[in-house]
Specification:
alpha+beta, three-stranded mixed β-sheet, about 325 residues, 9 helices, 11 strands, about 25% helix, binds zinc ion, four-stranded mixed β-sheet
């Protein structure tokens, strides 16, 4: 049975960290030196997600987020080490633990703060960006300029995870099956502390969570709406992780700022939309297969992205797991 478009996108985001088996993963070769630059004709005719996912290493050059979160690329990306004192990277085989240095620095600061606020050993980091950013072959429309990161609702265990554990552990779902409420058996006070700590960081532009989680936090806060709640935005999926988006770094001049979040906690009527039939039970148009959107081509990205794609690889020592 065909999934309705909106639900399909819920699943696309919802499944982005939960399952891996059915999704293609970069091969080990993708983590090695970058392939030779492809020919001009080849670049023009292939979706940009294929070109960027082939690059196993970042480009040389000053670190710069180029373009917009769902349409851009990353120059001079840096890697978040896969194991830190208070974080571990999940799904390492995807080779998406890259970002603008500001994102890596943010995670290195945020992980110990979140650990302290929650009592967890640390955080589990999901997808960031590919080594050169750009569109991804599966899982996300954003995460393209090295300023987005998914962080799991599951506390980091007290041991260093094996390769297998990082590939196969499923995230914790905080939302009930009807997508209207939180799941009281998985949702804890520590999750609220975790979300609040992320939204309180000044470099954070917004934090995306499922609407049921936003609704619960609105409910628990009552009339008291501290300003961090403005940054907490409801979005499809995000039932097993938060998505943290950083502001454009000041020296990334070609990074496009997102419209600032409204100065409002967003706990009123606007939240109702997310629980409407339109979102939760979209109509299925029978007999009309939904057309997948046209994939982004290199020409759709900012001009600087061609240079990023074709640039020599930066020589880096990558961290790894056993
Ligand atoms: Zn995300």
């Amino acid at each position: 049975m065909r999934m309705p478009v909106v639900l399909a996108s819920v699943f696309a985001v919802g499944l982005s960290i939960g399952t891996i088996a059915a999704e293609p993963t970069p091969t080990d070769a993708a983590r090695g030196p970058a392939a030779a630059p492809s020919s001009k004709a080849g670049e023009a005719s292939q979706p940009a997600k294929l070109l960027f996912s082939k690059k196993g290493l970042p480009s040389i050059g000053k670190a710069m987020a180029i373009g917009f979160y769902p349409r851009g690329c990353l120059q001079g990306g840096v890697e978040l080490p896969v194991t830190g004192p208070t974080w571990q990277v999940m799904r390492v085989s995807r080779n998406r633990n890259w970002g603008h240095p500001e994102l890596v620095k943010f995670l290195e600061r945020f992980a110990p703060r979140a650990s302290k606020a929650t009592g967890w050993h640390g955080i589990l980091v999901g997808d960031m960006a590919q080594p050169r950013g750009g569109p991804l072959p599966f899982g996300h429309t954003s995460h393209q300029i090295g300023l987005d990161v998914d962080i799991w609702f599951m506390p980091m265990p007290g041991h260093v995870l094996s390769k297998d554990e990082r590939e196969n552990t499923s995230a914790i779902n905080l939302v009930s099956d009807d997508w209207k409420h939180i799941n009281p058996t998985t949702f804890t006070q520590a999750h609220i502390a975790f979300i609040r700590t992320a939204a309180e960081q000044p470099e954070v532009e917004r934090v995306l969570v499922n609407a049921a989680i936003k609704k619960e936090i609105c409910h628990m806060q009552g009339a008291n709406h501290p300003s961090w709640m403005d940054k907490l935005r409801p979005w499809y999926g995000h039932n097993d992780h938060i998505h943290v988006r950083l502001k454009c770094p000041p020296d990334s001049r070609n990074c496009r700022h997102q419209e600032p979040v409204p100065k409002d906690a967003g706990c009123g009527k606007e939240l109702d939309y997310w629980f409407s039939d339109k979102v939760l039970h979209p109509k299925i148009e029978t007999g009309k297969p939904a057309k997948p959107p046209r994939p982004l081509m290199l020409a759709d990205l900012p001009p600087g992205c061609k240079g990023v794609l074709d640039a020599p690889a930066k020589q880096v020592h990558q961290s790894n797991v056993n």
